[in-house]
Design a protein that fits this description.
Blueprint: H1 19-30, H2 37-58, H3 70-80, H4 85-98, H5 102-124, H6 136-142, H7 153-184, H8 190-199, H9 210-227, H10 238-245, H11 248-291, E1 300-301, H12 302-309, H13 313-327, E2 333-336, E3 348-350, E4 353-355, E5 357-360
Antiparallel strand pairs: 1-5, 2-5, 3-4
Helix pairs in contact: 1-5, 1-6, 2-3, 2-5, 3-5, 4-5, 7-9, 7-11, 11-12
Length: 361
């Protein structure tokens, strides 16, 4: 397994807009003096409010989605223009700390956004170096002509490469799982993704919670959508596959990742999908029996459920045992072996106890 490349944390929504990294690069390029790291976020924030005020007057974005709102920018600009640049920048740390007024809270939230824009450009994508100068890729980005808000075709390809350089394994893992979700008609696979990341990619960073990965994946999904990485079938588009194949490092890493993914699907995913599919049918059959008033004090005969599921007794027994072990901590599951009349049919077994009825709460 080659070195796993991934971004450990992303902010939703402030990391979503890739275009903001170009604004950071434009700011760096326009600066006539060396910018100290302690002043980078503050200086860029002043630049951002000014540039957004001008651009919002010309055209507001179709969606903000992580961008400062037009009302916040207008309010802050009205305050900003009453101050000198030096005075305004000097006030920001105190404003961020106090956040007493509505305006101060707007400054706090927009400054936070600006800080994440810098973080994405500098720390995540490497467009700015440690001396706060544009890197080769940063200069390449500002050389691309495009709309202020919308990504051009060339920019989309540029950012696809940047994402692979910074987040290769988790971004493409998300794309591969998107395909599986369509293949198996699933609404989400976050638990399976965590399993794959932990056991196959050997990343334990997300093991403590699925919430962090879910939030980061919202950012990655937005990137994939705005760049147009996937087609309607969930496959990576040919032009992006070509970009991968044209880069030896990307090509070898993608072959390794795809191999691991196929192994995971074969060993783990298909069996889990089979269980979840049968579970959905089982629960639906149970509810149908309740609606048909064939319950006994809320208990449903397992043979009535089995009949609706159209499954063999042997397979039903295997599923029933698995269902109980996997769901007993999530649901209140009760069994009994009592019937109102003689029922000589073979019993099912849960932990070696014969049962013929079930109640789920």
């Amino acid at each position: 397994m080659d070195k796993v490349i991934f971004i450990a944390s992303l902010h939703r929504p402030f990391s979503q807009q890739l275009k903001t990294t170009k604004w950071v690069c434009d700011f760096i390029a326009s600066s006539k003096t060396n910018i100290q790291s302690s002043q980078l976020n503050l200086e860029f924030y002043y630049y951002l409010i000014n540039i957004l005020y001008k651009e919002y007057q010309r055209e507001t974005p179709t969606e903000f989605n992580g961008l400062p709102s037009d009302s916040a920018v207008y309010n802050i600009y009205e305050y900003l223009k009453t101050k000198s640049k030096t005075k305004f920048i000097e006030e920001i740390p105190g404003i961020i700390k106090s956040r007493n007024t509505a305006l101060e809270r707007q400054i706090y939230s927009t400054y936070k956004a600006a800080s994440y824009f810098v973080n994405l450009a500098k720390d995540k994508f490497g467009l700015v170096d440690d001396k706060n100068k544009l890197t080769y890729t940063g200069n390449s980005l500002i050389a691309i002509r495009s709309n202020f808000y919308k990504l051009s075709t060339v920019e989309k390809e540029f950012f696809f490469v940047r994402i692979l350089e910074a987040d290769f394994h988790l971004f493409l893992t998300l794309c591969l799982f998107n395909k599986l979700e369509k293949k198996y008609s699933l609404k989400g696979t976050i638990d399976e993704q965590l399993d794959f990341i932990d056991k196959f990619l050997k990343i334990s960073h997300f093991k403590f919670t699925s919430a962090s990965l879910s939030n980061y994946n919202i950012v990655r999904t937005y990137w994939a959508e705005i760049i147009g990485v996937l087609n309607s079938q969930g496959n990576i588009r040919k032009k992006y596959i070509d970009i991968i194949n044209d880069n030896e490092k990307f090509r070898e890493s993608f072959l390794n990742l795809s191999g691991l993914f196929l192994k995971f699907e074969k060993e783990n995913f298909k069996s889990k999908i089979s269980y979840h599919t049968r579970k959905a049918i089982f629960v639906k059959s149970y509810k149908n029996c309740l609606k048909q008033n064939i319950s006994d004090l809320g208990y449903i005969n397992l043979y009535d459920i089995k009949q609706q599921m159209r499954i063999s007794s042997q397979n039903f027994q295997v599923f029933l045992a698995e269902f109980y072990e996997l769901e007993k901590n999530n649901l209140s599951i009760f069994f009994n072996n009592t019937v109102n009349s003689i029922d000589r049919r073979e019993r099912f077994y849960i932990r070696n106890r014969p049962v013929i009825k079930i109640k789920i709460k």
